[in-house]
Please model this.
Amino acid sequence: MGSLLRLLFYILAIWFLYKLIFEFIVPVYRGTKQVRRQMRDMQDAMRQQFEQQQRQQQQQQQQAGPQVPPQAQEPVRKRDDGDYIDFEEIK
Model:
């Protein structure tokens, strides 16, 4: 009788392990693998888009020719009219 219970226990343990592996571990592994692949693809697409924008900006700068740096331009002069006092009319 004890060996029959032991055999039944081993069969149930193997069945639970089988269910655990093929209904939980394998799908989680596949899902994780798919998410990683999608993240990598998305990062590659973003990197390519960024590099394309950089190339376009460089081409536009080369076509525009040399630009004068902002420090070399004349500074904008402020107009100084003296002190201004704001007042409100009291009624």
